[in-house]
Amino acid sequence: MVEEGDPAGVWLKEAFESEYPEAEISWTVPENGINTYIERARQDAVDADVYFGLNIDELVRVDDSFDGQLFRSLERDRIEGVDRLRDDLTFGDPNDRVLPYDTGYISLVYDESVLAPPESLDALLDTEYEDTLITQNAQSSDPGLAFLLWTIAEYGADGYLEYWRALRDNGVQILDGWSESYFGSYAEEERPMIVSYSTDQVFHATGDEPDLTRHQIAFPNEQGYENPEGMAIFADSDKADLAADFMAFVLSSEAQAEIARRNVQFPAVADDHVELDESFAQYAHAPAEPVAFTYDDLRGNLDGWIEDWAREFASQ
């Protein structure tokens, strides 16, 4: 079983093995993410059954760079609970290989004692926000890539680089990964605003009167980039039936609540199929207008967009 460092992994292993005594989950966190398994597939050396933590952009990367079949099409009638999935969470995969298990929204997290929330992406170019924003490298960070895609959705493939040039002129700081940018820079109060998750307050709202001054959420244009995480069964797996049982378990009400709590992300199932803590409902914020590219939007375009961006901005 492959996961992208998922905090819910330990609980899922224990709970699933308890319900399915014949099963044994062994998690692997690939150093190079999905690229590890693209290379292994080229050598007919895939040694896993399920990939857990697959994003739409990673699925597109698989199909753009690998001619074979890395993941198999799902037998949805074999997976209990697929009817519970939110209608708005879809990978748009023409081969139906992925089921979402949670989602997050990329937003701006800011310090309300220093600045007011920007009302639009254009506002980030104002002098009021000069030298205030931290974001991440779109080549190596999921939030960084989501923010890049958000700007492409807003300004188009012909206009996003010009926006980033203006953002650079206004002093945006681009760091390599989310952990480095959040804990190494934002948490140290080096800057008052960062590209991060809209569930930020859930993580920090501890105690009776939590101080959320530096954990305010901004949705420019009432938008945030939707970034669902999914699970897929490897094409060469000889445990496809057990993998389908695992997917059904992940979509159960109990598992969805645990994943939301442990991953600090939104469930993939509709609200009436999961019961969340009151604090989650209070502090987890979702944008009124989620932004997301579909599989078809990204296919054949994603690598070029990232490469063009990286050529100018990855070393900032």
Automatic annotation (TrEMBL):
GO terms, biological process: thiamine transport
Keyword Cell membrane: no
Gene Ontology molecular function, alphabetical: thiamine binding
InterPro entries membership: ThiB-like
Keywords: Signal
Keyword Transcription regulation in record: no
A Pfam family recorded for this sequence: SBP_bac_6
Domain of life: Archaea
Designated name of the protein: Periplasmic protein
Organism: Natrinema altunense (strain JCM 12890 / CGMCC 1.3731 / AJ2)
